[in-house]
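Forum > Structural Biology > Help requests

Title: Can anyone predict the 3D structure of SCP-like extracellular?

Hi all, first post here. I have the sequence for SCP-like extracellular but no way to get a structure on my laptop. I'd be grateful if someone could post the structure tokens.
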Amino acid sequence: MLTVGALALAISAPAATASAATTTNVQYKVYYYTQGSNADVNAWIQQYLRQVQAQYPQYRWTYQPVAQKPAAKPVTTKPSAQPAKTGTTAQVSNFASQVFNLVNQERAKAGLKALKLDSALSNMALVKAKDMKNNNYFSHNSPTYGSPFDMMKKFGISYGYAGENIAMGQKSPQEVMTAWMNSPGHKANILSQNFSKIGVAYYNGEWVQEFTG
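Reply #1:
Sure, ran it for you. Structure tokens for SCP-like extracellular below:
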């Protein structure tokens, strides 16, 4: 390993024109390049100084390493935020969260208890949204899973009351909620006193709400 460093060599001796008690300090800076470690460098310098001291006993030779500046730390620049693309995990989660909040806002206006967001229902809702998109249909009855109630049983979801809202093509959570609230059947599910849990999902233009109570 090549070591590059610097050290200061200082000598002190009586000044020629001053009293014996007066000394003059002279300092030299020496740069060195070596294949060894710092310990090797120190040993070499000590040996060198002993030789110099023996040759010039009238002087006192000392040295001290010169502190080296620490290497500059690399600067990490955070990449600029990119707008979410349609269908990305971030957008799917964000849209679902917004719909959930809008549902409870509508229930609060009606004096109803807020629904709890249920992870099992949300997972089922996302599977249903993907199923509609991938199999090119728009219906409560899935060619893969059957009715919403059949699908809940397949996903191990128990219920006393259950319901499902679906929509397609709306561009935002507010737009889909407006459409549902303007439809008596969908509005009835959102404001039902029989439901206590909800699952919400969005996937590439497909919107799904699952309710249980």
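The first helix runs from residue 38 to 55. The first strand starts at residue 3 and ends at 14.
Shout if anything looks off.
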